[in-house]
Amino acid sequence: MALDLIIVGGGLSGLTLARIAQSRGLSYRLFEARDRFGGRIDGVDGVDLGPSWFWPGHSRMAVLAKKLGVEVFEQWSTGDALYEDHSAIQRGHGFASMAGTYRISGGMPALVKALVAKLDASCLHLSTKVQTITREDSVIVTTSDGKDHAAHHVVLALPPRVAAELAFSPSLPVPARQPLGDIPGWMAGQAKLVATYPMPFWREEGLSGDAISQIGPMVEMHDASDPVSGKGAIFGFIGVPAPHRNGQAEAIRSAGLVQLERMFGPKAAKPEALILKDWAQEPFTATRPDWDFNGPHPSYGCPPALRSLWDGTLTFGSTEFAATQGGFLEGALERAEEVAAMLIK
Fold first, then answer.
1. Considering its fold, how many domains does the chain have in total?
2. Are residues 168 and 306 both part of a single domain?
3. Which residues pair with 275 in a beta bridge?
4. What Gene3D superfamilies does UniProt report for this protein, alphabetically (predicted)?
């Protein structure tokens, strides 16, 4: 018997859609290719390696955190920011650009963990890659273990270009394939370097942890400390383009450590951990065209050609397709609500 719904992708959007489906009594299965849930949400010891913030006005995120009982706190922004160019390092130059944003205690993975705990574990499948999607009387999803799964609706809660690489039978029409391949994945070309310490020592020295550098390899840095563990952390966005990062992880880590000491002093030279998360190297997040995107935040949304595919049985459900908040965590929740409304209608 065909399921009501198959969800491909266990990130925030896919998990939220599963939660809505479960609450409405729909039969569903969720397949995630990774060995963990969260998708582009990842972290270590309470420090985010993926998205870190949500903003005032992102009401869905605030409501979800409250319902799941996870603590929200405001991004640390007290103290001087640093600015570095080839002539000097200036203190008190600039401002804490993320002041007023919100984070999750324990990192965003704590939100994912709490969300997964609300779902029927028998409906969730990790390390299960979808190979082909076939349209018959129902939609047949074939997974990497060779099994076929039938559903009345399939939702691809995947980055657009990753979804485009799936095998469809029959093939998606050309007017759909083109826009799907043109949509850059949110975060897909980015990399973050995270350094953790026993405590946020820079705060005692009157620094906010925010820094801008014209030298790099980190071009924008922030305090990423976790109030649950009490440990300190600084993370930075790597300014080296993805094609030039390829195969250079150790060199970037080494240069990043030198930069941390240069900007924050000798204590910064001895982190407990130094982690480089290059999302461009994650095959379930990025494709090769994503490496070349360096523009501003894209104007996301669901192109008309990608609506009502296969008579409405195939839908795209990642944050990039959200009507107003695409590319944000809020957009993942928004898109899950949009898709649920379409399916339940």
1. 2
2. yes
3. 194
4. FAD/NAD(P)-binding domain
> Residue 345: its pLDDT value, please?
73
Which residues form the domain of 141?
1-45+107-188+285-345
Q: Does a structural domain hold residue 62?
A: no
Based on the domain organization, do 252 and 306 belong to the same domain?
A: no
Confidence of residue 95 (pLDDT cuts 50, 70, 90): confident
Q: Residues 252, 254, 260, 262: is their CA dihedral positive or negative?
A: negative
CATH number of the domain within which 165 lies: 3.50.50.60
14 and 146 share one domain? yes
Of 63, 77, 75, 59, which Cα lies nearest the Cα of 107? Answer: 75
Q: Are 36 and 12 in contact (CB under 8 A)?
A: no
Decide if 122 is inside a domain: yes
pLDDT at 318: 98
Answer yes or no: do 222 and 293 share one domain. no
Residues 62, 192: contact at Cβ < 8 Å? no
Same domain, 32 and 82: no
329: left (phi over 0), alpha (psi -120 to 50) or beta: alpha
Sign of the Cα pseudo-torsion (179, 181, 182, 186, in order)? positive
- pTM for this one? 0.96
- The C-alpha atoms of residue 338 and residue 342 are separated, in whole angstroms, by 6
Query: Residues 206, 22: contact at Cβ < 8 Å?
Result: no
Same domain, 17 and 129: yes
Structure tokens at 139: 């939609």
CB-based contact 196:229 (threshold 8 Å)? no
Please answer whether residues 189 and 292 qualify as being in contact, where contact means their C-beta atoms are separated by less than 8 angstroms.
yes
Reading the block at residue 309, the tokens are 């595919």
pLDDT at 154 over 90: yes
* Residue 136 in tokens: 């018959």
